[in-house]
Amino acid sequence: MKLVLETVTKKFDQKAIIEGASFEFEKGKIYGLLGRNGAGKTTLFNCISRNLQLDNGQIAIEEGDQRDDNYDNTSVGFVYATPHLPGFMTGYEFVKFFVDVNKERLAVIEDPQVYLARAGIESKDQHRLLKDYSHGMQNKVQMLVTMLVKSPVLLLDEPLTSFDVVVAHEMKELIISQKDHSVVIFSTHILQLAQDLCDEIVLLHEGKLTGIPSERIHDADFEEEVVKLLSTSHAENNTLNSILLQEGGQ
């Protein structure tokens, strides 16, 4: 299965945030999306999830010989940087509601307590209102329910920044488990996290998407090369990326 972006363009007030971006993301890999502040990472995610309409180009999900250019937004799981949860519900009530609504999409249905405990929400907190949860706890619940349905595409916008070391490790393991059935893309500004977790890194810079050879991710000078790519024009990037590709093949 692939998520295919072809010459995708998205503008706001005539300013192109994404401009002619093309890339193929495959199931079985975790992609780290890196870019400077304001580069358009969240805009790109909103385009993929159908929250925003494209100004030009196509986004499709391909599986075998089948191509779906008009996939429904339910095909995309989206974990937002800022959790979007109903604060008037308890953690237990929300997970129960989510499971009831999506029961036909779940391979196995368990008690909400089991799911919440798996996400590190203790029993004493499961019946508290979500509005009283910390940001990190809300993020846990959001990630939990998004991953339950095993959508073909999973987008994670800065997913681990609000977790402590132990929980971040648990969430990493959960993210890794998702690549068996989903195209997984997460945006982050933490290069070390991308190196630890990703099979491939994709840069979003000046509206374009550029893949970095996977064999270069753990090179000693990788951080320096990424900084160069994100600090130069797209034309210069083409030259630098060609050098990366040549060196990666040596």
UniProtKB/TrEMBL annotation:
Alphabetized PROSITE patterns for the sequence: ABC_TRANSPORTER_1, ABC_TRANSPORTER_2
Keyword annotations of the record: ATP-binding, Nucleotide-binding, Transport
CDD domains: ABC_DR_subfamily_A
Domain ABC transporter: 3-229
GO MF term list: ATP binding; ATP hydrolysis activity
One Pfam family cited in the UniProt record for this chain: ABC_tran
ATP-binding in keyword set: yes
Protein name according to UniProt: ABC transporter ATP-binding protein
Organism this protein belongs to: Vagococcus allomyrinae
